[in-house]
Amino acid sequence: MENQQRPSRRLAFAGLFLIEMWERFGYYGMTAVIVLFMVQQLGYTDERAVQTFGAFAAMVYAAPAVGGWIGDQILGSRRMTVLGALVLAGGYILLAIPDPRLLFVALGVIAVGNGLFKANPANLVSKVYEGDPSQIDSAFTLYYMAVNLGAAISQIATPLIALWVGWHVAFAVSAGGLLLGVVNYFFMRRHLSHVGSPADFEPLDYRRLTLVLVGCVLAVAFVTVVIQHLAVAKAVVWLAAIALAGIFAYLIKRADTSQRKGLIAVLLLTLQTILFFIFYQQMSTSLTLFSARNVDLQLLDVQLLGAHLHYTVPAGQVQALNPIWIFVLSPVLAWFYNHRARGKGDLSVAGKFAWGFAILSLGFFTYAVSGFFADAGRISIWWMIGGYGLQSLGELLISGLGLAMVARYVGPELRGFIMGVWFLATGISQYLGSFVASFASVPKDITDPVKTLPLYTHLFGWLGAVAAAGTVLAIAMLPLMRRLSEGSAGAGSEELPHGAAADLEAGFES
Q: Which letter, b or e, does each residue of 70-108 get, where b requires 16 or more Cβ atoms within 10 Å of its Cβ?
């Protein structure tokens, strides 16, 4: 029986791997160019562009908890995977229409589509390997590669397409990725017929489907208003932060001793994760604009066998350094974890967070120091390559453990709800990250790189100092975290595989 199941599992996993890869291709292709599109094509100020993107990203991160619930309880995870992909494709198609009035509606559709899609393929992967824990770690590791593979390809391709052909063609390519993913899924759907949530094995209830679609329309309208009006976005974020604090206060107050310890540990680590995503959000905002204005993007300029080889990196393509570094560093870090586990024992989650913040701090100090070596206001792209390498290593130490900490510290009866709360916290941090990026906003009348350089290097220096403070705080909390982890409700729970956690966080993502 085991041997008969393996080919089916491989093909089922392949179908999920490919649709996730194409979905991430679309999303990261769009994020690679959207802020530059708003600034360079639509004439937005830096502040409006990055805060609009931040409000959008907050909705993107907060929405999957709802989509996962609909997949589990209402329509089924398989159906929600397809529905979410089609809605996402519709959002990218709207972006591809050269009418600036459609921008906010398109972003609203994408945020809702992401909410419908995101949690469901990962849920199906866990069901494909249910009852076989020896296989699930490697499966989720490969699944996380789908995220980074899609991100790397699209963040290399779409900035080039935007530069050579046009912005709207780049968005159309993102839509094409989703449609290819859906077509491939339908060809392979028979291999997934045996997995899904209970609703997948029931006839489609068209009344429920209609209610979900009506809910999607209302959600798109809500998100469109939020991201279009920055004052409304700020109010929503404040309300979400108050709700987050209230939820933790209520749960901690009502919990028994073992639950309380785990909840306090998750609260402290959630606050650190919020801080991390403020740094992560700089890739799509301040670091992209910095690359466009103050980085010498000439990567190759050599004579070889009588040919002149020349390549200048489009500014949006710099973001591809993140998934590329993830590919390079992940196996090295996995080897280090295994090596340490055989010797001194594995680092605690809190210890990995502390190391992650220390390395993040070095990454942002690298960007800040680069200004001293600028030529006419522009730094070498190699400073960005090094900074992204440090940032990506910090990400692997922090972001990949976000949901793993919930599995470790919280008991099964609260785990699903707390994961949803954690997504809410991540959404808040996306907006905060864009708000921080707006401190380096460049006035429209300033185009001289010499004048824009200090705006960015000062911001990166402050971010490096904040990350250093986060390191000190994380180290100071280590004894407390050890005490809280002893006897907490989730202690002894199997930690989620790093790849699964990082993927479910969207940020992913990578």
A: bbbebbbbbbbbbbbbebbbbbbbbbbeeeeebbbbbbb
Q: What CATH number is given to the structural domain containing 328?
A: 1.20.1250.20
263 CA to centre of own chain: 24
| Residue 235 and residue 224 share a domain | no
- Are 118 and 255 part of one and the same domain? no
Give the pair of three-digit tokens for residue 364.
């942002």
Q: Around Cβ 167, how many Cβ atoms within 10 Å? A: 21
For the entire predicted model, the pTM comes to 0.88
Which of 228, 251, 268 is a domain's end point?
Answer: 228
Closest residue by Cα to residue 40 from 316, 451, 305, 251? 316
Do residues 128 and 102 both lie within one domain? yes
Q: How many domains does the chain have?
A: 2
The tens-digit pLDDT sequence of the chain (510 residues) is 444 455 578 888 889 989 989 999 999 999 999 999 999 999 999 999 999 999 999 999 888 778 888 888 899 999 999 999 999 999 999 999 999 999 999 999 999 999 899 888 878 887 887 766 556 656 766 777 778 889 999 999 999 999 999 999 999 999 999 999 999 999 998 888 888 888 999 999 999 999 999 999 999 999 999 999 999 999 998 998 898 889 888 888 888 877 888 888 888 878 888 898 899 999 999 999 999 999 999 987 777 777 777 889 999 999 999 999 988 888 888 788 777 767 666 667 678 888 999 999 999 999 999 999 999 999 999 999 999 999 999 988 886 555 556 656 676 666 656 766 777 888 899 999 999 999 999 998 899 999 999 999 999 999 999 999 999 988 888 888 777 766 555 544 433 333 333 333 333 333
Residues 153 and 217 in one domain: yes
In 3D, which of 406, 416, 422, 435 has the Cα closest to residue 507?
422
Q: Which residue range(s) make up the domain with 37?
A: 1-228
First to last CA, the chain: 36
Q: State which of 209, 228, 247 marks the end of a domain.
A: 228
Q: Are residues 237 and 205 in the same domain?
A: no
Class of residue 125 by CB neighbours under 10 A (exposed 0-12, middle 13-18, buried 19+): buried
Residues 216 and 316 grouped into a single domain: no
Is the domain of 471 the same as that of 364? yes
Strand duo 307-312 + 298-304: pairing = antiparallel
Distance CA 11, CA 83 (A): 21
Same domain as 510, residue 439: yes
